[in-house]
Amino acid sequence: MKLTILIHCPDQSGIIRAVTTFIYEQDGNVVYLDQHVDKQAGVFFMRLECEFELEQSLDNFSREFEKKLAFNFQMDWDIYSDDYRPRMALFVSKYKHCLYDLLTRHSAGELQVDIPIVLSNHPDLEPIANQFAIPYYHIPVTKETKEGAEEKQLQLLKEHQVDFIVLARYMQIVSPTIINAFPQKIINIHHSFLPAFAGAKPYHAAFERGVKIIGATSHYVTEELDAGPIIEQDVARVSHSHSIQDLIAKGRDLERLVLSRAVHFHVARKTIVYNNKTVVFS
Amino acid sequence: MKLTILIHCPDQSGIIRAVTTFIYEQDGNVVYLDQHVDKQAGVFFMRLECEFELEQSLDNFSREFEKKLAFNFQMDWDIYSDDYRPRMALFVSKYKHCLYDLLTRHSAGELQVDIPIVLSNHPDLEPIANQFAIPYYHIPVTKETKEGAEEKQLQLLKEHQVDFIVLARYMQIVSPTIINAFPQKIINIHHSFLPAFAGAKPYHAAFERGVKIIGATSHYVTEELDAGPIIEQDVARVSHSHSIQDLIAKGRDLERLVLSRAVHFHVARKTIVYNNKTVVFS
Amino acid sequence: MKLTILIHCPDQSGIIRAVTTFIYEQDGNVVYLDQHVDKQAGVFFMRLECEFELEQSLDNFSREFEKKLAFNFQMDWDIYSDDYRPRMALFVSKYKHCLYDLLTRHSAGELQVDIPIVLSNHPDLEPIANQFAIPYYHIPVTKETKEGAEEKQLQLLKEHQVDFIVLARYMQIVSPTIINAFPQKIINIHHSFLPAFAGAKPYHAAFERGVKIIGATSHYVTEELDAGPIIEQDVARVSHSHSIQDLIAKGRDLERLVLSRAVHFHVARKTIVYNNKTVVFS
Amino acid sequence: MKLTILIHCPDQSGIIRAVTTFIYEQDGNVVYLDQHVDKQAGVFFMRLECEFELEQSLDNFSREFEKKLAFNFQMDWDIYSDDYRPRMALFVSKYKHCLYDLLTRHSAGELQVDIPIVLSNHPDLEPIANQFAIPYYHIPVTKETKEGAEEKQLQLLKEHQVDFIVLARYMQIVSPTIINAFPQKIINIHHSFLPAFAGAKPYHAAFERGVKIIGATSHYVTEELDAGPIIEQDVARVSHSHSIQDLIAKGRDLERLVLSRAVHFHVARKTIVYNNKTVVFS
Prior knowledge:
Chain A contains 8 helices and 13 strands. The first copy, chain A, is an alpha/beta fold. In chain A, the strands form 3 sheets. Chain A has a 7-stranded mixed beta sheet. A 4-stranded antiparallel beta sheet of chain A has the order 2-3-1-4. A two-stranded antiparallel sheet of chain A has the order 12-13.
């Protein structure tokens, strides 16, 4: 059995020693350890992977962890077993590239998740979901129907036991109802180098400003638009010779890469959110 | 003799043919030609380098160019002779890295300019100017003395026949008096990926926002702070593990590179400003 | 009608003027022009796009071009009409990622080609071709059957009027028979930063050498293995913490990007091959 | 007092626990810990920074470390105190840019080293050393005088208590005599993306091959030319439009950056050499 443990707590002396000693006493072997201290905030972060020869009950282990370790150090913690395959829902609109990218990665065995559903406010991308045999639900969203639509979405997410949501160029604002049901579990891709060009039409704004580099940003969704904790960013060089259409085309490659990396980090339990920022372990 | 010609004018048919025919009739040979059309704005841009076996009078050539070519096509144009070495003034404050970078590049023969003066509101960097035998003028600037200080600056710039100014981390806002005397001839380095984090303390702001990439931007100075036409940008990857001090250290390398590239583009007559954006020819 | 013209010829005075004058006399309008001179080799390269209001016969235009222009300047030239959509064959083996990437880009309208066939020495990827409704031919290749297999391949390529071939991680060496039938029309993706790590297992070799950056290279296929003219390269940073498996996973993203960019350059008629190198116009 | 500890040893269970417990028992506090396991080689690597409120004798600490910890785990280890400022010698030839870069960084307080001497086989750069008040020794090297020259070099290095050597574009091959006196303590900058273009004139070779990206590599010097453990690499995009001179100019910026980063990693005790590769901790 292999467990991944994520911890953050007030910084203090002796944490690593205490945790590694605990793992040792549980007959485990630490195979990866990375830690970070935010000295400004006085917070300690750690990610461990440990292997156990004997089968362990995850519940049991977690209870002991809380009692003997986490309580003393006032830890926020999560423990994940490698046995479990997280379940990811995709929200899409009309853009094909991110949906195609995630489905082909999944199909090629690059993404260790199950994808029980694709949800959309438009019917357009249903053929793509069909190509990959993923159920597609078309739930139209208008100003008037938004509340009801989100209830339907929530119900589907619950039915399909979804663990986290990826907004793969879903062009709608997700309401607090859904955000609160999936705290730090909704990953968005924004097509700019945030915080520059938040909001609508970032490629148009980038063209207007005459930037020499464009970007894409993947972040956890919070109530404030495009202001959640950034997971991953990347950029591409552009010049005066690129039209808005060129920026959009170049941007598609950035969006694909940045979103898939952010999903990978999330799935591999490499992210901790703190103070509206992320620690992303290597 | 070698001339570099920069042109922009309303887009229309036949410009390249007309210009290359004109050069031919003047017994010149085009050795480089790059052009660009901004289709949204309907503007044509071109940069040519042409060589002449016979000595030409630049004045004569320019007069013919205006009469036979520029007038018809409503061209904005500049013609530069490679004989002339532009004169660059450096404005600095207390940061050493950009000053050192430009002076060592100059001293190593990488920058085809003369540097008649370094101006500063502080005395701190005088020893560095001395190391490279460049006259250093310390002109203190306070709220009360700003007007007088800028008059002194202007006078020195005039005396030393300065062609363009580089703000090498000069931490003062330059007033319209100077900007208007050197339109599109003042190059600033801003230590962020503009338009993100304009204004003061961009590394602190980047740290606060938790970005995964930081940047630096070189731009021509206009009256609106950090909003002038961008000449060059570059970025570096950062992570949660970098403190503000780390960002500042990483940023120094970006600032050096981006500023020196922008100066190089300007000196090589590769930039045209239009609509608060730049065309930077390759 | 829109034509793209690619030219290279001995460098000499007056070429641009002659070409633009010719286009003008044919009632055409130059909408893009880029040129390059290789001063070492004394060769002039140019790419033009020009539009014609009146319909032109491509044959006619080409004949005039040859007679009035190309002959005098000893030009090698190609003229392409935007009307024609090039036909691309994909050769694959067992790796899914490049095949998926090209098929999804094609399906999303990002690639202006037709894809009449996918050829493979293995049956494994047939389901993917089926997903996208592209005919898939499984032609096994062994040492003994190679000659016959290539004849079958050539016949299929001919039947389907294929213009160029993309080796999307096709793990076989293509023989001179096919190379000579498609000169400078076979695009390969090699999973290293050439010329480093040519040949088999480049990620293993990169790991062994301890490089801090890995790469991928797309090139036209010539008889010498991995030594053809490079079209595009890109790189990604790695560290001691990456295993060979990590390099392979990171490399997949590079391979996808670099191959799709090379295909794009080829399809947009932006490449000229000369001296075993490429000019790739912007 | 602050100590930095570098360890590598056969991988086995319990190392982190043992080390952190040892630090705890010495009244120390771990403020940074990074570890890595090379699973292929079965080797464990670790870097720790720990602070001690009470003054410690480094000798004492090291003795205890060896006795109670290192012996059992068969550790190779180094312990460095932050009190000590390493002493760096620069070897140069005729190129100015890397020498200028390191001296200005040192002068601006960016490099935590002392620079007691600059050695060169040419007199050309003496004025630069003088600008920064660093003693410069001109020791001509010819085939015949090489042995004697290296003896002089070794003597100077000894006299000035040099800890490590930086070959800042020193265009001579360093002989085993010096390499063995400074094992894994000589840092070279090679102006290519190794292993591509090892040896002489790499920019010429890169131009010839038509690569689209050039690079620079910093490595520890071993007896085999350009084949030592790589510390850092970086790259820059080039195109057909760049001449060899352009590659050389672009390359200077790469060389400056890559060499200064490698020096920084070495000085900050972030590198461990193993199997002709480096672990470079973050």
